[in-house]
Amino acid sequence: MRHATNLHKTYSRAPHKGVARTLKTFPESADLLTVAGVYLESRLEFLRANQNADGGWSYFPGKGSWLEPTSYAMLALHGTGSDPDLDRAWKLVRSWQLPDGSFQPSGEVKEGTWVTAQALTLARIRGVNDASVRASVDWLLRVVGAEHNMWTRTGSFLHLIKARLDVSHEGWPWRDGNATWIEPTAHTLTALKKVAGGYRGAEVERRVRDGEDLVLSRRCTDGGWNYGTPNMLYVDLPSFPETTGMALLGLEGRNEREFPGALDLAERFRAETKSSSGKAWLQIALRCHGRNVAAPQESAWGSNGPSNDVLLASLEALGHPEGNYKLFRAGGQA
Amino acid sequence: MTRRKFALLSGAAVVGAYGGTRLQKLQKPAPLPDGPAGQSAVAIVRARSYSDDLVCRMLEGIRQCGLDVRGKRVLLKPNLVEFDPATVINTNAAVIAAAVEVFHQLGAAEVKIGEGPGHRRDTLDMADDARYRATIPKFERIFTDLNRDDVSPVKGFGGEPEFYFPNTVLGADLIVSLAKMKTHHWAGATLSMKNFFGVVPGSVYGWPKNKLHYYGIPESIVALNRQFGKKAFAIVDGVVGMEGNGPIQGTPKPVGVLVMGSDLVAVDSTCCRIMGIDPEKVNYLRMAADLGHVRPGRIEQRGETIASVHTDFALIDDFKDLRLA
Fold first, then answer.
1. Is A114 on the interface with B (CB under 8 A)?
2. Number of domain units in chain A
């Protein structure tokens, strides 16, 4: 469908290093569309070439499968004609669901974590809506940030916490029993928006609204977001590109007037940041918010040659104009 | 219970707890335990700048400590925290490059580098920014992002039945903590022991590694060193340290030293004395006093004396009482 270009035909069976090598001899006058096509296709080909035998993806080739890179690789490859491979991957992901509805981050780690949100997003994109999905929703609705308790709220009220932090919202932690952070909250907002109006609809709606409010409350004074602590010891902390991108994704669908200037800051971050994942998350977020972001013009894998980072390759593919970024939108399909 | 009564009781409990903490601070701390038998050697060598012959300086210090690395798989663990071209937050690339060469020269079977930053996910981009890739030969081949390495469980760490650590860390025979000499707004100072926070995998525990905060920062520092301290060596980059609101927002503090040793408690205690901090008042060092030596009489200082390199680091208000008398 999207990638039925001549370049796709040329490189779809080529090893990814070959693609990168070809790029180094690419004529500088090559038109942008062609370069952009290679940018996307080289990443998808890298993902196809590095799927593990068990169906999953590792963070780096040659290692064991983890849910996080598997879920983003699956999203990047969704709808590109790799169905049997994605079915194998999905089977592996499902095998990691625990009886309480949460998902373990890998076969080795036997406890549920924030990756439950990524598995739920994946399930809904694949059209799954069964008891296992409802179990994940139950788990995500049960889990709240640990600072949302009587003691911390009272301490905050009495100004005993040495940070400017609104602890009135629930949000989501990395692991049950820990505090709320921007990244797991943003991923969970994306996931729960995909089940909105269905199972436990009213509670889902309330938690989504409260989660978005939490994200808004944790905005740094520079207009972006860091991991979730905008102020420490009464000193304002700076925002990061990657977490700004994720926060904006979590706010997808919310009125832009509630976070004025954030998208402009995101555009600036995207142009200036040295963080590859920051750039990728910002591309996804800006496109989801309707900003017309130019296709990447840099060489296929950046100045250091081919990256071997599966998560990064997936995010870069997702953030491409022809990539699957729309999957992050509430109810979005590729 | 009425809402009013509940609010009053909550307020009283929090005020009581806060008052208790303040009172505890005023009380004279309990005497330190004796610690392990014998003395610990800690070497202080001068390195006035990163363009000094750091290989030579490091070899001198390691020999003074009597470390034997022949045939060992060595993992170098720098402190890589933030995008920081000024190289004040992170362990300087020249120190890591020198360590790679030194451990090869000393006969290590393998020398790898591993780090898992606490807040940022772009470990390799940060390494680029800190000039690790440009300075350290074959950097990508020997580097592992510990946040995203494969992991295995260990029993009973941090109050959990199973806690997961990167296989690269578990498989090393010797972990060299290449820490930076910095103040820390929660722990007082961050040195070779706190540097072990970077071996906790973000892929399991998140960014930041919030489990450690809930377990307690001093408690986590001690637990990590109980886990890995027996196969550890420390080289603290004090060529240029950080004072004030460390470990990220502080200001550069030139000291011109590398501090080394196999007893990380003794190394950190020595660093504290160099920084004008009383290690016997630093919570995590007091808690670790059974693992290594805090008291000066139990630390055999080699190379430079503390007095010859001592320079007071600026401390934030919360830690003014840590100042060495």
1. yes
2. 2
